[in-house]
Batch of 2 targets.
Target 1
Amino acid sequence: MHDRSPLVSAFVEAARSALSSATVDGATKSALAKVFGSISSGRPLSASRREMFPVCALVDPLLEELEGKDERLGDLAKTLRPLLSHLGWRRREGGPNASDNFMDGHATGMIIGPGGAEDRHDVWVGLTIMRPNVRYPDHSHPPEEVYLALSNGEFRQDEAEWFDPGIGGVFHSPPGIVHGMRSGEAPMLALWLLPIVPKPSTS
Ligand SMILES: [Fe+2]
């Protein structure tokens, strides 16, 4: 058994602590228990080559700002900053209701999960960064999802009203629900965590 990288270990502990002190409902608690159960042990940093996009340059200053704003989130930000160049950064195609500036206006960075700094398939934990005035497409996926807002910005589930959980706000997206997000006049940064339920064996 190889040991988890100290960079990822520090992030997991800070994320656990930041999320456990947030006020959350039962569904969020249960999803987080699944995520942190899956990642109780890990493996070394992925050696894959990393590509970063211009929008990724917005992440570090936002994290630096958080360090001065809030102790709980500041501790998390401190562990994320040295990990940024190790994340699996990707951009996705647009989709329903995406803004025209979406492609250059966003990136997602996998921290723990497929192609992530810790490459594995039983969980997805990562970041999304968006430039100001960008609308992320409406999308859905079978796994439930927990978001931790690391900046202001708005989210929507199904046809419900848009809401801003506020910096440090935590909420749950049930499995399969259609959801999207949009930034306002400032960049938007969010951490997301998805427990992946294994597909039943087809044998
Ligand atoms: Fe999602």
Note: The longest helix spans residues 6-20.
Target 2
Amino acid sequence: MKTYLDLSELGMSFTTEHGVFEALTGVNLKIEKGEFISLIGHSGCGKSTVLNLVAGLLEPSQGGIILDGREVDGPGPERAMVFQNHALLPWLSVHQNVELAVRRRVMGREEVAEQVHYFLSLVQMEHASHKMPHEISGGMKQRVGIARALSLSPKVLLMDEPFGALDALTRAHLQDALMAIQAELGNTVIMITHDVDEAVLLSDRIIMMTNGPAATVGEILAVNLPRPRDRVALADDPAYHKLRQQVLRFLYEKQRKVTQLKTATGGVIRRTA
Ligand SMILES: Nc1ncnc2c1ncn2[C@@H]1O[C@H](COP(=O)(O)OP(=O)(O)OP(=O)(O)O)[C@@H](O)[C@H]1O
Ligand SMILES: [Mg+2]
């Protein structure tokens, strides 16, 4: 298959008051059109940085990103982001936040209203459509953020822990909705998650990132479970549990290494140059 999104020798250093901090180095990843990719790894290992680079919100210090044959050199409408700490426009209501996104694609009044209705009901937020962002909870804001990103119908959907702040039932509902939408529209998705079950359920491949010094891609796990996937059926599937174990083992191994490194350096992991 042809590479659609190509992250090549990607590196990111931040200049801070303590010096240059090398957050990422040598990230290589080739993604096919329509693939669902999860990024998993310990806090601070550079997952959001990878997503921000693909979104074009950060400029890489080394290497580059090619999307559909063109170099990423800034944000673009074909890439939509669901942020880790939601980012709604505070002066617009829930309805208006989604409407603004919908209007990028459709113009007719009725169609706009129909689509806003569709995406808000998908995330079960219709009842609060008139409310302002400061009047709704964190999980509700997150759901509106998801509705907004989906309503852009982007070729590449970038999601930074999109379901982290949600209760288990809402989370399961949105995971299923996301799988159904992706199957229908064929978007390419990169999602960050800390939830191993979520990663296995949704992904075609799980990218497991190593942390410090200078994070990079550790192991890549292909999830060859047939689609459509059903969470209840998978609970009894040995292949599902094997994949889950593989991810957990990777995470525990990495945690042990970091703890050892911290002990050896007196609690400090130096990455400054
Ligand atoms: N603008 C910045 N300036 C300096 N350092 C930064 C900046 N952004 C991120 N970092 C550092 O880069 C590293 C990676 O951060 P990043 O936010 O990508 O981690 P993450 O894997 O998304 O973590 P989490 O799971 O906690 O969200 C961290 O050590 C962080 O402190
Ligand atoms: Mg993050």
Note: The chain is about 35% helix and 25% strand.
